[in-house]
């Protein structure tokens, strides 16, 4: 595929597929004019000018969110909320009242919050990219500069960037045929949205040089290879072969099973009734992860039982007669809830989040379980419920007793290595386990999964992570209880085969990823999956594990 002048770079593959085209890059940040001192008589007007610019930016993002769906809509809405954030606005206004102009007040207020978010770490640190994106959009509005972001290509193009704001990724269209970033990881927001959109994507190409705009590039989202100036005929042939494979994949209709008939549940991740309706019309056999925090975030008061029940019932009705797994509130100091009074913590990823909120205020969990039970009664469905951030056998017992008291099927998420190590004991108290591979990798490797510099450590192909998955799966098999995966690892068709080989019984991912996962499983036997799992476990690093599994599955 190379020609003599082609160069090859390698990163972490995120979304399979092949894309070829000229490089495009995000627009540069808007120029910032020299600071001016605002006269005292004009400061109220300057504050109003900032507020108007922020409101315009928020309105544009909200409009784009209304045209999107799934994770893309969620990210755009969250970014719009950040533009409206009262704390950010107040910090800017405070500076304007001392004479700082709106542009520099915006920049200084953003720097203040970015430093705070970085210190908090975890998901809050991920919002720093969003903050900088909002800053640049507001500055552009204030100065009359073009809105920053990704240009709209007029031909099939490959987007190359150091990193991308999630709002930019969410706005990509079919003319962006591949995505390459120097930073980021397989579980970053950019990667998650690219997976939902089905755009071939490679991240963490740490040694990627500055490739000039317009340079032809071939991106292989399965191997992680980026070829700069490849042979044109060979590149077009690779794109055609990938398109044919995608066409065959889209024809897969399920149910999930290996080539020799071993059943594997193919389930969808959803966050509300609209996304559930979309998933219900796809190949999804049910819902493996219903994220309920959408009803709680950005709220000054806790939603009532009736309001929650209505949201949950919408998802249950979309999947009448099919499995729906509801995750209870997964929030905390890294996704703060205004009504809990939880204090800021120096390390929120290891703080009061998920089920831990209920230890101080069990009423929040009890009311949510009441709402789920009410939705079940209204619809005649039997939802499964699981708690996030469970750490001990006692945690699992605490949750299971509350869930079963309301007639619900009780399970817990395996995100903390302690639970993976004691999975057999946890299964004495619950009916199923669901592995959140994003957080399990993070905690296993002691590496923030949103840190660009640690993308290799937080790769779900890490053999240590796979060893824990294998231990949990063995415990499920011994107990005769299902063990699913609902992290981003379930969206990787190659890794899905390995997970099934380890003993995982169901895979839950973004709706767009399901056909590729189901179609790949349909081509391999259970024994071949087990062989791929064995060689991946025996590897010393994630790259070697990925290549060993790929070779085994081609046997």
Structure characterization notes:
- Strand 7 and strand 8 form a beta hairpin.
- The protein folds into 3 domains: 108 residues, Glucose Oxidase, domain 1; 104 residues, PtsI, HPr-binding domain (Enzyme I, Chain A, domain 2), CATH 1.10.274; 266 residues, Phosphoenolpyruvate-binding domains (TIM Barrel, Alpha-Beta Barrel), CATH 3.20.20.60.
- An 8-stranded mixed sheet has the order 1-8-7-3-4-5-6-2.
- It is 47% helix and 14% strand.
- The chain has 555 residues and is of the alpha/beta class.
- The two termini are 23 Å apart.
- One of its GO terms (molecular function) is metal ion binding.
- One of its GO terms (cellular component) is cytoplasm.
- This is Phosphoenolpyruvate-protein phosphotransferase.
Q: Give the class-level CATH name of the largest domain.
A: Alpha Beta
Low-confidence region ranges: none
Distance between the termini: 23 Å
CATH architecture of the largest domain: Alpha-Beta Barrel
The structure class reads alpha/beta
CATH superfamily of the largest domain: Phosphoenolpyruvate-binding domains
| Average of the residue pLDDT scores | 90
Q: Count the helices. How many?
A: 21
Beta-strand segment tally: 16
Query: Which strand-content bin applies to the residues?
Result: 5-15%
EC number: 2.7.3.9
GO biological process, one term: phosphoenolpyruvate-dependent sugar phosphotransferase system
Protein name: Phosphoenolpyruvate-protein phosphotransferase
Subcellular location: Cytoplasm
